[in-house]
């Protein structure tokens, strides 16, 4: 495993749309392992492959409930609404308030190509939306209520 460099929002690479994964091989496993190690080192709760320079539809998420690896994730259900304060490993020092669904269900594949469906509420729902947005070239502050002052309490 290796720590990968995280691309920041000044790089237009983050605006590119990621391509689906069609090979579930050792190369994908290394990418997933490296992404998880990088996310944990940077104290994040999620990371998309595009953030480490790989245009593939791959995300890792851990909001404190264990690591989720999602390959070719697709949000299939959204319920409710919540106002959240978000940040991003690719946007150091920036935080914003935005609306996200309260509950989200995602269909994806695991690292071996097996179909999985996962649902999450609150911060996990937010993480699903945030990371899936990265795969389509979106950044969290594209659709916000307001930016948060760095000194403002959450």
UniProtKB/TrEMBL annotation:
The active site is at residue 131. It is an enzyme of class 3 (hydrolase). One of its GO terms (molecular function) is peptide deformylase activity. Binds 1 Fe(2+) ion. Pfam families: Pep_deformylase. It comes from the Bacteria. Fe cation binds at residues 88, 130, 134. It catalyses: N-terminal N-formyl-L-methionyl-[peptide] + H2O = N-terminal L-methionyl-[peptide] + formate. Belongs to the polypeptide deformylase family. Removes the formyl group from the N-terminal Met of newly synthesized proteins. Requires at least a dipeptide for an efficient rate of reaction. N-terminal L-methionine is a prerequisite for activity but the enzyme has broad specificity at other positions. This is Peptide deformylase. It comes from Solibaculum intestinale. The gene is def.
